[in-house]
Design a protein that fits this description.
The complex is a heterodimer of chains A (205) and B (237).
Chain A (H helix, E strand, L loop, with lengths): L18 H22 L3 H23 L2 H18 L10 H20 L6 H8 L3 H4 L8 H9 L3 H13 L3 H8 L3 H19 L2
Chain B lengths: L1 H6 L1 H13 L4 H13 L1 H14 L14 H9 L8 H19 L1 H12 L10 E6 L5 E8 L4 E6 L9 E8 L7 E5 L6 E4 L2 H4 L7 E8 L12 E9 L1
Antiparallel strand pairs in B: 1-2, 1-8, 2-3, 3-6, 4-5, 4-7, 7-8
Chain lengths: 205, 237
């Protein structure tokens, strides 16, 4: 099954080079955006269709971040319920539908990861998560071009690049990254912060 | 640190990045959440970082979720505040049918019979059941949209239940077996529901819908306990 992203507006892989593939891709991404629009209007059948077409992508993200099928099941459920409530806030000018959905799933999984470790979070923070967190409302601004992001990540040192990727894709927190790399927490923070500033500088060039 | 991060834009933007990536925990996470709730610029910067790194999610391998998850999602959905146009169309049709059934039950019934025999209707076409008592005029009309799995049931005027009682709708499976409770019929507004997938497959042409008188709030046993006051079969429109 081809990646859903290859059919999205941010896709820049080889398949997009052929006009026919590009046409198909734009139609497919248009369909997902259209489905989200229908979901925003309260159309349950559209949500079912959207689920059929995107749940494997989103479940993959939940599994990767949470590492547990039981939790991934629950977070996938939370994700589509949030999509049902929040579809109205999707802005096709900012990101493709599948990118938006992927970020909703990732936010939900990150929220779950931080609840899972009550030792590091005060109780008020945990109860706050039960509601619609701001991260689920103001989700993302314009999605970056994939090749551009890859080029800017390549400008970082290999270790720093790996840390940013681990943080984003595995949901690792500062204390976890510090433990993994066996460095003091303060060292890890300054590595990451320096990398983030360099990354932003490159992306804004 | 706290004050510095609130005042220095550079520091605040870095905190937004850390928040967006999910690096924060404990007090720092709580502080970032507070800022996200209160400060649109902070929220926007966090959104920018999510957008910057979102393409990385493309690398994650797809994995089909277990089949039971979708059923749970459906059950967890709140009823939509603004129904889609399809539902509006169905409501319009219900109003039409209600007018008809009050004024000309016999005509409606015979027309439904004629329509039911139309050979080329597709299985996803909407269906209608006119629920009547054996002697009296039609009392309810149910409209079933298989595409949207939406069932709308409208009661005719003048069929409010007696005090302390409710009128409950049932689906009587064509294959036999116990009736399924489908909800309490309101006399004030048409009842609209999205039917779960398993039950939706039972809502086929020829299936019987019935309304019984039950204690207020519905049958305590899950099966009809009072007299059936109206029933009718689903037919194609």
């Amino acid at each position: 099954m081809p990646s859903l992203f290859s059919a999205s507006a941010i896709g820049h892989d080889g398949a997009m080079d052929s006009p026919a593939a590009a046409l198909t891709a734009s139609r497919e991404s248009g369909d997902l955006a259209g489905l989200l629009h229908a979901v925003a209007g309260g159309d349950r059948a559209a949500l079912a269709d959207l689920y059929a077409r995107t749940s494997a992508k989103l479940y993959g993200i939940c599994l990767r971040l949470l590492g547990s099928e039981a939790e991934a099941d629950e977070v996938l459920q939370e994700t589509y319920v949030a999509v049902w409530r929040r579809a109205r806030s999707y802005d096709a000018a900012k990101a493709s539908a599948v990118t938006w959905l992927a970020v909703v799933a990732r936010n939900k999984a990150i929220d779950r990861l931080r609840v899972r470790r009550p030792a590091s979070a005060p109780i008020e923070a945990a109860t706050e998560i039960a509601d619609e967190t701001p991260s689920a409302i103001d989700l993302l601004e314009a999605a970056e071009d994939r090749e551009r992001l890859a080029a800017c990540l390549d400008e970082l040192e290999e270790k720093q690049r790996g840390l940013i990727r681990t943080a984003f894709l595995d949901g690792a927190s500062y204390p976890e990254l510090a433990e993994r790399e066996a460095v003091p927490l303060g060292t890890m923070k300054s590595w990451i912060r320096r990398s983030l500033m360099r990354l932003r500088g490159c992306l804004e060039r | 640190m706290t004050d510095e991060r609130r005042t220095d834009p550079e520091e605040r933007d870095l905190l937004a990045a850390e928040y967006a990536l999910g690096l924060l925990s404990g007090e720092e996470l709580a502080r970032a959440r507070g800022l996200a709730g209160a400060d649109p610029a902070f929220r926007q910067e966090a959104g920018r970082w999510r957008g910057r790194l979102a393409p990385l999610l493309d690398e994650v391998a797809e994995a089909p979720p277990p089949p039971h998850v979708w059923g749970r999602i459906e059950r967890a959905l709140p009823l939509p505040a603004e129904p889609g146009s399809n539902v509006v169309e169905l409501k319009r049709r219900v109003v039409l049918w209600r007018t008809w059934s009050a004024a000309a039950t016999a005509l409606a019934a015979s027309l439904a019979l004629v329509l039911a025999t139309r050979p080329d209707a597709s299985p996803s076409e909407p269906m209608v059941a006119t629920l009547a008592s054996q002697t009296g005029p039609a009392r309810l009309v149910a409209t079933w949209d298989p595409a949207g799995r939406t069932l709308i049931v409208a009661a005719a005027a003048g069929m409010a239940p007696a005090a302390g009682h409710s009128h409950q709708l049932w689906l009587i499976p064509a294959a036999g077996g116990n009736p399924h409770p489908m909800g309490i019929v309101s006399t004030r507004a048409p009842m609209r529901m999205v039917v779960p997938g398993a039950m939706a497959s039972d809502l086929r042409e020829g299936v019987m819908l019935a309304v019984s008188v039950e204690p207020e709030g519905g049958s305590p046993t899950g099966l009809p306990t009072g007299p059936v006051i109206a029933s009718g079969k689903l037919v194609r429109t």
